[in-house]
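Students often ask what a holo structure prediction actually looks like on paper. The answer is less mysterious than it sounds. You provide the chain, you provide the ligand, and the output is a string of discrete structure tokens encoding the 3D arrangement of the protein together with magnesium ion.
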Amino acid sequence: MRSQEPRQPLPRVRSENSNRRGVELLCPYRMVRSVTEITPQELVALGIKGVILDLDNTLVLWHQEEIASHTLAWLKSLQEAGLKLCVLSNSVLSKRSERVAMRLGCPNIRQAKKPSKGGFRRALQAMETDPHHTAMVGDQMFTDILGGNRMGLYTFMVEPMHPHEFAYTKYISRPPERLLLRYFRKRGHL
Ligand SMILES: [Mg+2]
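The corresponding structure tokens follow.
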């Protein structure tokens, strides 16, 4: 990761040959403080027809299932704009994601094993969309963003709702995430 070499910032809009490679696979197309910063108009303008949603610390607090009213209103606004939704969670035992998806009236894929492609493929199938017309919204670089970019999706990284999270995430994933975000910002990618 040499920061000296001159290089163009990564494109913010996807094209046939702009798929990300190497460390760029960890860079989201856009970083937001909260999901509500992503407007349905923006998604429609990007040609998005389906949105894959991470659950913990993106839509709900870690290990909770209560959706805040402003998040719920945002989700409804996406559906009203004709966008399909799908919840994609790595959780194995919990049925929370199923209950949240049921509440939203959308499909749910759990045991997704993000960043593996399998769960993403199941989500695309469930929404009947293709990668070029699908966005991923999640709070973790090494699962949500890496997986979404590997699939060629438009990726939004959201700041985690709350610092309370799985110890592995907090102590192992977040420190390199912060370094990489700083690196991507420095390169003008974000
Ligand atoms: Mg998450």
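The pocket of magnesium ion is lined by residues 54, 56-58, 138-140 (CB under 6 Å).
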